[in-house]
Structures are given as structure tokens and as C-alpha cells.
């Protein structure tokens, strides 16, 4: 359609179907003489959505998921970390700056709850404090948005949800623990995490790992019936027994051992 003429220009809106290219043609009625010196075409490019590369939830120090890494028996800590790192990699094909909304929910729940105090994040990770959450499996969702440089009708958002993440702050139990030198017997069990080891020590000095009855620490309940390797002289000893789970929690029980 024709537009208003100003200083030799004729302006108007060109209504065309969506396409990658545009073609145009000029026609003059009768014997009219005219020339076209310049054509200026203004358009708004299509806004493309953010592209997800990765989303990880793990320990602050290692960045690895806790349930995938066994805890060494010599580790001095007896509780799982209470802060997890939620890290992501996202790019925008248009170079738009991105903001992120981070939330979590228990697996099976409908309601998502915000991670942290800020509604929007501009970095590539946040710290997720889990010390007040009940033990169980959780999902973390991150929504990437280019709303800082696009109007409401053009904003593009893309979300990604993590695989289930275990939050486990409960120590394993030592059940039926019995010490009859030179043997230690009992059952180590946990509600969510597999048992990764049981060890003993005299006076907390050197820790010696025990073997499970079935040969592998791969269940949430493991029996052990092992022989104390230390050769002890007659007398009273303080024996410490420590059970670990895969989340990083450990329970220590103390027994007085009399050797005759």
C-alpha cells in the first residue's frame, strides 16, 4: 500500500507472509517516467530461544553428585554437606543476555519452590541449601529467559530439569552390634543411601575397614561379621565402630572391650 510522501520518499507497511527472502517489483502506469534510487527495508528478526548445554547438581567442592561417589573410610567428617551447587551452561543464538529462575521440588510433588532469596540469577550457578529439607529425592529446574532485551510478546524461555537428586542428612544405624574379641558383628543400614563401609578403631587412632558378609558394599542394609586384626594384650580398650553411607553421613558407636 502507498504511504505518505516526504522529501521524495514514499513510506508504507509491506505485508508479506513469513519467509526468508523478500522480492519486490516497481510498476508505473502509462508512460510515467520515474527512477528508483534507493530501497530501505526495515524488519525485526525472529527472536530465537536459548540453547541448553548442561545442568548439574553436586557438591560445592567437587561438582559431582554425592550418590555417585563413595566416601573414603579415612574421611574425618561424619555428616553430608548441607549445600549443593546447581550449575548450568546455556547459550543464546542471538547473543541476548540471559536471566535464570531456579526452583526445586520433591519428586512426585506439584509445587516448585524457589532456590535462594533472589527471584532472578544472572550467573552460571547458585548454592542450594538443603539442611532444612526432609530426606528424600528432589528435582531441580532452571528456566533460562531472554526477557532483559525482548518485549513480552517476543520473550523466549527454555527450561531444564535435573535427574533426581538425593538429599540425605540422616546417619546410618548400627543394629545388633556385638563385640566378642576377636570378632565384630552387626548390621549397618540406611533409609535412602547405600552403605559404603564399616570401620573400627581403638581410641580413634588408626581406622581399619571391615568387609561385608556378602562381599560388596552395595545395599542400604549390609551385615558384617569380621575379625579384629589387632593383637591385643589383656586389658580394657575403647573400641569405636563407624558406619558410612554414600551421601557422606557416618555414625560412630563406642564399646568397651575387655581382653583376657
Descriptive terms for the model:
5-stranded antiparallel beta sheet; mainly beta; 42% strand; 4-stranded antiparallel beta sheet; 260 residues; 17 strands; single chain
Counting helices, strands and paired strands, the structural category is mainly beta
**If helices are DSSP runs of H or I spanning 4 or more residues, what is the number of helices?**
0
How much of the polypeptide forms β-strand, as a percent range? 35-45%
**Number of E-type strands:** 17
Biggest beta-sheet profile: 5 strands, antiparallel
Note poorly predicted spans.
Answer: 1-5, 62-72
Write the H/E string, N to C: EEEEEEEEEEEEEEEEE
- Tell me, rounded to a whole number, the average pLDDT: 86
Cα distance, first to last residue? 108 Å
> Helix amount, in percent?
under 10%
* Shape field: rod-shaped
> What gyration radius follows from the Cα positions, in whole Å?
33 Å
Written overview of the protein:
This protein is an all-beta fold. It has strands spanning 5-6, 9-10, 51-59, 83-91, 99-106, 113-114, 125-129, 136-145, 157-161, 165-167, 173-180, 183-189, 195-202, 208-209, 221-227, 235-245, 250-259. The strands form five sheets. Strands 5, 6, 8, 9 and 10 form a five-stranded antiparallel β-sheet that branches. Strands 14-13-16-17 form a four-stranded antiparallel β-sheet, with no helix packed on it. A three-stranded antiparallel β-sheet has the order 3-4-7, with no helix packed on it. Strand 16 (235-245) and strand 17 (250-259) form a beta hairpin. The chain is rod-shaped. The model is unreliable at 1-5 and 62-72 (pLDDT under 50).
